Amino acid sequence: MSDKQSILTNRQGHPISDNQSLRTVGERGPATLENYQFIEKITHFDRERIPERVVHARGAGAHGYFEPTGKVGDEPAAKYTRAKVFNQIGVQTPIFLRFSTVIGGRESPETKRDPRGFAIKFKTVDGNWDLVGNNLKVFFIRDAVKFPDMIHAFKPDPVSNREEPWRFYDFVAMHPESLHMVTWVKSPWGIPANYREMEGSGVNTYKLVNDQGVAHLCKFHFQPKQGVRNLTSQRAAEIQMKDVGHATADLYDAIERGDYPEWDMCVQIMSDDDHPELDFDPLDDTKRWPEDKFPLLKVGRIVLNRNPDNFFAEVEQSAFGTGVLVDGIDFSDDKMLQGRTLSYSDTQRYRVGPNYLQLPINAPHEAARAHTNQRDGQMAMYVDQDAGNKHVNYEPSLLGRGLQEAPKPQKDYHQWVEGHLGRYQTTRTADDYKQAGERYRTFEDWEREDLIANIGGDLKQCPEQIQLRMVWHFWHCDEDYGRRVAQAAGIDLEKAKALPPLPGKPAPHQRRPQSTYTSGKAEEKAPSQETAGAK
After folding, report:
1. Residue ranges of region Disordered (predicted)?
2. Do residue 345 and residue 462 come from a single domain?
3. Please, are residues 432 and 27 in contact by the beta-carbon 8 Å criterion?
């Protein structure tokens, strides 16, 4: 490898001086449409594979319904949102839910250590609403411009075509914000026992908007009625020797025998302001909202009660996008959410085609059938026009027989936006070590042991430079965490502790204290490490 370093450019040859941040109005956003560097980067990334999904290629899915309580916790849902899907008590909204693994290909094993996708298409009376999340409540990065870099690092080496631990940890070592997710995914929580016994989360921050145009920040979560169960690496390996698709089989068989999986749908609510009292930005998707301050409030339940008639037509061709919202649910300035909103739908137009929304699995419910002036394109199956003048495919028209705009809400939501346009990194989340350390201390002994063994085994395969930096990171999360990782991987702890902070990254506010363990059930702990399929 040559010591000569080249200047990073985009595909037009323009030098890139900041590859870390979207261009936003002020530090917290929103992002701007003229983010050429990001758009060029993400749209190329979306087209890197055909026809398989770039990420979330291995998946399973099922049909079902969402049934609202009509409340947010104990309060009327209408206090927070005018979305009919939450307010119409007794109405069951059809849904399609696709589960997936993230990094592996379409034929990869479902025992793979990886976040699990949890994507729901709600076919509401006001049109489709897509909620695209995963089983864990955080993510690796908080700025969408880093997504291609992250996936490239986690995918196989472009030369050896192998997933190399050093590539994963090389990326993580330079992005301390990833430590929280790494602590989750390298523990047993990184291998759910199956799809039925795992949580779901929208991960990103959204807004709920009511009839008065008042918005609240919101996170969506799903708690399985079946309970939560995870696997150790050893148990996952035992299952993989016999079956690489155990989770798909488990889901299919459960529905076929009438054992319908069910989840409580919950939200966390926060007022729509800066929240300076918090030591993190609530729009940062690498952080969790503390449930003692922002409790999970039930809004309904989802039930899966029907398997697909055809796997390819429904599971493979199902297409989701975070920008697919209905009235009463809106975007926050979460930088990952804003970047995903472009990327996801762009991916579907490329992977499935510009008319992917005409496929039955993706089309809106009949009660909200599409009526647009959009025409033609590859694989157009029909024209989604009104029964008016077929010659008028534009708006407005003096003939008055074409499509008309819908009535405007009585009080719409208007966000005030002001700030200097530039590229910013989050300063309120200077300490990316706190929640990772807190998570480590809530794990039970067997979970910590599996976590340490997994990370230690990975780091043994990494160069010393990466080994030392990762131990430095873990030690700043929790002294015991760093000490045990160093011991497991045979790394000199004192040498690691002597490293300076990363250039250009804020130093940890303070070293985390030595762990003190308490007996009792850990927060959000899987009840056991039993084998998949057992009750």
Report:
1. 1-25, 496-535
2. no
3. no
Q: Which amino acid is at 351?
A: R
> According to the annotation, is 344 in a ligand binding site?
yes
Nearest to 148 by CA among 281, 55, 77: 55
Domain of residue 461, CATH code: 1.20.1370
* Domain end (from 364, 399, 417): 364
In a domain, 9, yes or no: no
Q: How far does CA 349 lie from the centroid of its chain?
A: 20
Residue 49 inside a domain? The answer is no
pLDDT tens profile 215-261: 999 999 999 999 999 999 999 999 999 999 999 999 999 999 999 99
Which entry of 35, 63, 128, 134 is annotated as an active-site residue? 134
* Final residue in a domain of this structure, among 335, 364, 393: 364
Write out the DSSP string of 193-259. S-STTS-EE--S-EEEE-TTS-EEEEEEEEEETT---B--HHHHHHHHHH-S-HHHHHHHHHHHTT-
Q: What is the Cβ-side half-sphere exposure of residue 407, based on CA atoms within 13 angstroms?
A: 3
What is the rounded distance in angstroms from the CA atom of residue 141 to the CA atom of residue 139?
A: 6
- Say whether pLDDT at 119 is over 50: yes
The yes-or-no verdict on residue 528 having pLDDT over 50 is: no
| Contact criterion met (CB below 8 Å) for 436 and 183 | yes
Residues 337 and 438 in one domain: no
Nearest to 379 by CA among 353, 346, 361: 353
Is 19 noted as a catalytic residue in this protein?
Answer: no
Give the C-alpha distances (Å, rounded to integers) separating 239 from 14, 122, 242, 382.
Answer: 49, 33, 5, 46
Burial of residue 17 (CB within 10 Å: 0-12, 13-18, 19+) is: exposed
Q: What is the pTM of this model?
A: 0.88
Q: What is the pLDDT of residues 171-190, one digit of tens each?
A: 999 999 999 999 999 999 99
Give which of 524, 511, 514 is closest to 442, Cα–Cα.
Answer: 524
Residue 131: its H or E element: strand 127-134
Helix orientation angle between 464-477 and 445-459, rounded to the nearest 10 degrees: 160
On whether the CB atoms of residues 204 and 289 are closer than 8 A, the answer is no
CA-wise closest residue to 349 among 362, 338, 339: 362
3-class secondary-structure state, position 329: strand
For the chain, the domain total comes to: 2
In the three-class reduction of DSSP (H, G, I as helix; E, B as strand; rest coil), residue 96 is classed as: strand
In a domain, 242, yes or no: yes
Domain around 221: 56-138+192-364
* 8 A C-beta contact, residue 41 and residue 84: no
Structural contact between residues 96 and 120, judged by C-beta atoms closer than 8 angstroms? yes
More confident residue, 524 or 97: 97
Burial zone of 159 (CB within 10 Å; 0-12 exposed, 13-18 middle, 19+ buried): exposed
